[in-house]
Amino acid sequence: MITLDVTQTKPPLGVIPRRIIDGERMSTLGAGMIRYYLCAKPIPLEWITEYNEIANRLSKVPDFVAGGIR
After folding, report:
1. Could you give the count of Cα atoms lying within 13 Å of 11 in the half-sphere of its Cβ?
2. 13-17 long-range CB contacts below 8 Å, 24 or more apart?
């Protein structure tokens, strides 16, 4: 059972921001695509599609810079 401590001075831990998760996923997808490319294997279209969707979403986030978060 979860109990609440009303005397707590700091807020409870929340969730990881989406932009961070997206940045990590984008890096993972990119690394996977490079590995497939180096082995001369076809890159799954789902990976390319997901990579592009994340790139489009992150391009609208003002604090996101390719390769990391500002």
Report:
1. 3
2. none
